[in-house]
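Structure in, sequence out. Go:
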């Protein structure tokens, strides 16, 4: 499978006043917890119900830790943490700062490994991704793993 993208014109002009085009991912579907649980069950000795229960409990436990101002790292996946993103103007005095000036967001940083020299070796979930432009996808009915419509040789991460 490949990550499908299209060119999208920016709504913000650059310093020269030009609105340039940038690649944007096109989502081709949505996978829910039940589907993920079924696929994990196929790779393990657990039932789909068991894996769904584990996923549900993972969300509950992660929420507890995030709401206790802790970051949560899942080996091989990445780190989740809360951040506050400013939504308005700041306060002139430290004592006037409130959470009403921001929105609470969850940030995710994929797991990575580094070479001894400190350079990036791999990034979980991203390493090895293949891309294809939406207008070069051969058919939407291409079967996963057949290679059809998967890659136009455009670019690969990793």
């Amino acid at each position: 499978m490949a990550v499908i993208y299209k060119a999208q014109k920016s709504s913000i002009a650059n310093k020269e006043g030009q609105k340039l085009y940038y690649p944007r991912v096109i989502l081709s579907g949505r996978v829910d917890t039940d589907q993920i649980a079924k696929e994990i069950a196929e790779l393990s000795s657990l039932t789909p119900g068991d894996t769904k229960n584990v996923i549900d409990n993972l969300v509950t436990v992660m929420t507890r830790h995030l709401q206790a101002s802790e970051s949560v790292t899942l080996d091989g996946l990445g780190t989740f943490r809360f951040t506050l993103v400013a939504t308005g103007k700041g306060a002139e005095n430290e004592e006037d700062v409130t959470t009403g000036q921001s929105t609470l967001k969850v940030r995710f940083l994929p797991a990575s490994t580094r070479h001894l020299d400190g350079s990036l070796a791999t990034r979980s979930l991203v390493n090895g991704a293949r891309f294809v432009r939406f207008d070069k996808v051969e058919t939407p009915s291409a079967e996963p793993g057949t290679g059809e419509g998967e890659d136009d040789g455009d670019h690969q991460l990793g």
